[in-house]
Amino acid sequence: DGGITQSPKYLFRKEGQNVTLSCEQNLNHDAMYWYRQDPGQGLRLIYYSQIVNDFQKGDIAEGYSVSREKKESFPLTVTSAQKNPTAFYLCASKRGLRTLPEESYGYTFGSGTRLTVV
Amino acid sequence: KNEVEQSPQNLTAQEGEFITINCSYSVGISALHWLQQHPGGGIVSLFMLSSGKKKHGRLIATINIQEKHSSLHITASHPRDSAVYICAPRTGNQFYFGTGTSLTVIP
Q1: How many CB contacts within 8 angstroms connect chain A with chain B?
Q2: How close A14 gets to chain B, by Cα (Å)?
C-alpha cells in the first residue's frame, strides 16, 4: 500500500543533541512538508519541498534543517539551536507541482513522530 | 489573532448522537480541509472542499465561502469516531490549521 512512513513513532534525545526525523513516501508525490504541533496549538509549517534538491522555509524554520536528495525522502533535522524541540512532528506529501483541481484530494499525512528532549 | 477558530474545543456525545463541529476563518482560501487525528497522532484527510457540501458515509462537510464558515457533521456517532477533528483552510500550499475539536463518543 502507498503511504508515508515516519520513524520512529517516539524519540527521546538529550538536550544539545541534533536529531533527524525520517519521512519516506512511496506515492510518487512531488511535494513534501514538515509540520510541528504543540499542545493546544494548530499545526505549523517548518519546511516544505516541491521538487528534489529544492526546499523552502515555512513559518517556524529556525533551528531546523532539511534535505531533499531523493523524491521519496524528506528528513528533518532538529538542531541544538531549536529552543523548544519537544513536540509532535508531522510529515505530509502532495502530488503534482501545479495547482490541482480544487475538488481533488492530493494530500497525505504521516502518522507523526513525538520527540521529547530531556 | 487566530486565522482559524473551531468550536467547540471539546465535545462529549452519547453513541448515536448527531454531532456538529464548526470552523470560522478569516483568510481568503482556495480550499478547506477537514482532518481527523487519532490518539496516536496520525492524521487522515477526511474532506477537501471549496464549495457546497460533501458526504462520505456518516460524515458530511459543508462550506460557505461568503461567510467564511465550514461545518463537519457526524450522523449516528460511534465510539470509533472519538478523535481530534482539525479544520485546515488552505491558500495554494499554505495551510492554516485550527487547534482542533476533541470528540469523545461514549457507548
Answers
A1: 62
A2: 23
